[in-house]
Amino acid sequence: MTIPPELTQILKGALPHALRPFGRNQARRLPPDPGSYVLVLRLDETLVLTRRFAGHELAPGWYAYLGSARGPGGLRARLSRHLRKEKKARWHVDQLTMRAVEAWALPFADASDEGAAEQMTECTLTQRLLAMEAFTSPLPGFGSSDCSRCASHLLMWHPPRSSS
């Protein structure tokens, strides 16, 4: 399966120069550069979270998780880990990536020149998606505990209702 066309259009409209999504089997082709990313995840069943968010539930549906990868190995290392289902849970988002029936990554390498392009931080990506009015923040604080700008770096997509 792939990302629904309606969601793809929203992502293309909100995210400048978005690359084609990388799936679980394509992680080794991701760039090793530092940058930010959007994980697009589909849950088919309700997910009851643990740890800091114990007892909170995420409904089935499509989610976008916005993060950064500025450590060793950059985007390739971080997204390769996120796209793997089998791993030890280290971050809150691991609970989603391990249960997601689909997982896709959209990487945004940091701009090398100051004037070359707008820097796509996870906060910028979050704000751009929220501006499309097709996403909500289902769980305040998720992925954004060190961020004073965003309520959450986890967003849920709400598909348009058919008019039939």
Describe what you observe in this structure.
Helix content is 23%, strand content 23%. The chain is built from four helices and eight strands. The strands form two sheets. Strands 1-6-2-5-8-7 form a six-stranded antiparallel sheet, sandwiched between helices. It has a two-stranded antiparallel ribbon with strand order 3-4. The protein is globular, with a radius of gyration of 15 Å. The model has no long low-confidence stretch (mean pLDDT 89).
List keywords for this structure.
two-stranded antiparallel ribbon; alpha+beta; 164 residues; 6-stranded antiparallel beta sheet
For the largest beta-sheet, the strand count, sense and barrel status come to: 6 strands, antiparallel
The radius of gyration is 15 Å
Report the span from N to C terminus: 25 Å
Strand content: 15-25%
**Which structural class is indicated by helix and strand composition?**
alpha+beta
Give the assembly state of these chains.
single chain
- Topology pattern, helix = H, strand = E: HEEEEEHHEHEE
Shape: globular
The domain tally reads 1
Query: How many helical stretches?
Result: 4
Helix residue percentage: 10-25%
